[in-house]
Amino acid sequence: MSSSKAPTLVTLGLAGGQGKTTVALMVGRILSRCGIPVLFVDADPQSSLSTFLGVKPSDDRPTLLEVLTKPAKRVPLYSAIHPVPQDENLFVIPANDELEEANHSLAASPMSISMLRNRLYQVDETVVATDQVANNFGLIIVDPPPERSHLALTALGSGNYWVIPSEANIKGVQSLVRTKTLVESCQPHVQHGKFIGVIPFRARWVGLNPTTTTRESIEVMTEVVGAELMLPHLLDSDIYKRAINEQRLPRDLGNSELEYPLLALIERIRPALGRYSDMIPHFEKEVVLL
Ligand SMILES: Nc1ncnc2c1ncn2[C@@H]1O[C@H](COP(=O)(O)OP(=O)(O)O)[C@@H](O)[C@H]1O
Ligand SMILES: [Mg+2]
Asked: Is 179 in the pocket of ligand 1 (CB under 6 A)?
C-alpha cells in the first residue's frame, strides 16, 4: 500500500458492550480535532456508530449494505459516504438494520473476508489516484458487529490494525480470548493486518486502587496477550456517556485525562498516517499500568 493511502483501524470484539464503538468514535473525533480527515465504516446492523455520529441514512443514498452487495459500477464508493453533521473532517459509510442482509451474500462468496477491503481500496477499479477514496483520508475506522458473522469477518479482513477493547471483568476476558483466537485463525489470510493492542474498557477504581475485578481481569488479559500488547485502561465514567450523547470529547467536558488510552492507541498507528502523522501533538504522561 502506498504511504498516501489511509490505513484502516478495526475495533474487534466478539461480545456486545466491550467498547468497540466507543473507541472507534473517540479515536476518529480526536484525529478530526487535529485536522485529519477520517472515514468511519459502520459495519454493525445495530448501527450505534451511525447513531452516535448523528447520521441517519436517507432512503435515496446507498449505505454499507449496497457497497457490500452491489458492484462498484452501480454503487460507486463515494456515493455511500455521508458527511457527519457539524464536523467537517468526519465522514461515514452508515448502516441500518438492513445491513444484516449482507451476511447472506457474503456467505455465498469465497472472497468474503477481503470484500470490504477491496471495496474500500477500490481494487480492480479504474479511478485516478487523486480521486481514490483512501487517498483523501488520514484514517479509515471500521466498527464491526459483536458476533462471529460474515460481516465481522469482512470487517476484520479490511484492517491494517486491529485493537481489541475488552471490558475489565470476566465477560471481557472471555471476549478477549475468543477474539484473539479469531484473529489468529484469520491472520494467515490477512497478511496486511496487525494486532496492535488491548484496551481494558470500563475499568473501575475506588480511591487510589482498582477494584479486585478490574485488577484481576487486567492481570489475566496481560497473561493472554502479553504485556507489550496491553494499552492503558479506559476508566468507567459517566463523562464518556455524556460525551457520546453530546457528540463531544471528554476534553470538552473538562476531563481530557480520560482520553489517555486513546492517545496511546493513536501513538501506535501514528507512523502509518503518512503526511498526517505530524499533525498529532505528542503527549507526555507517565504510563500508569496496573
Ligand atoms: N468510559 C465509559 N464508562 C462507562 N460506560 C461507557 C464508557 N464508554 C462508553 N460507555 C457506554 O458503554 C456502552 C457500550 O459501549 P460500546 O462502545 O457501544 O460497546 P460495543 O460497541 O463493544 O458493543 C455504550 O452504551 C456507552 O454509552
Ligand atoms: Mg458497537
From this structure: no
CA 50, 56, 59, 62 dihedral sign is: negative
Ligand that lies nearest to the alpha carbon of residue 14, given by its number in the listed order: 1
Any atom of ligand 1 within 6 Å of the Cβ of 8: no
> Residue 94 and residue 118: Cα distance in Å, rounded?
18
pLDDT digits (tens, 9 = 90+) for 34-70: 999 999 999 999 999 999 999 999 888 999 999 999 9
User: CB of 17 closer than 6 A to ligand 1?
Assistant: yes
Nearest CA-CA partner of 68 in 113, 1, 134, 24:
113
Closest CA to 24 of 180, 159, 142: 142
CA–centroid distance, 18 to ligand 1, in Å, is: 7
Question: For residue 215, how far is its CA from the centre of ligand 2 (angstroms)?
Answer: 24
Domain boundaries, the chain: 8-279
* CATH H superfamily, domain 8-279: P-loop containing nucleotide triphosphate hydrolases (3.40.50.300)
Angle at 10 between CA 91 and CA 155, to 5 degrees: 90
Read off the C-alpha cell for 45.
446492523
Whether 146 lines ligand 1, by a CB cut-off of 6 Å, is yes
Checking if the pLDDT of 278 tops 80, the result is yes
Three-state DSSP state, 204: coil
Dump pLDDT digits (tens) for 15-40: 999 999 999 999 999 999 999 999 99
Distance from Cα 201 to the centre of ligand 1, integer Å? 8
Q: How far is the CA of 21 from the centre of ligand 1 (A)?
A: 7
Do residues 141 and 44 make contact, with C-beta atoms less than 8 angstroms apart? no
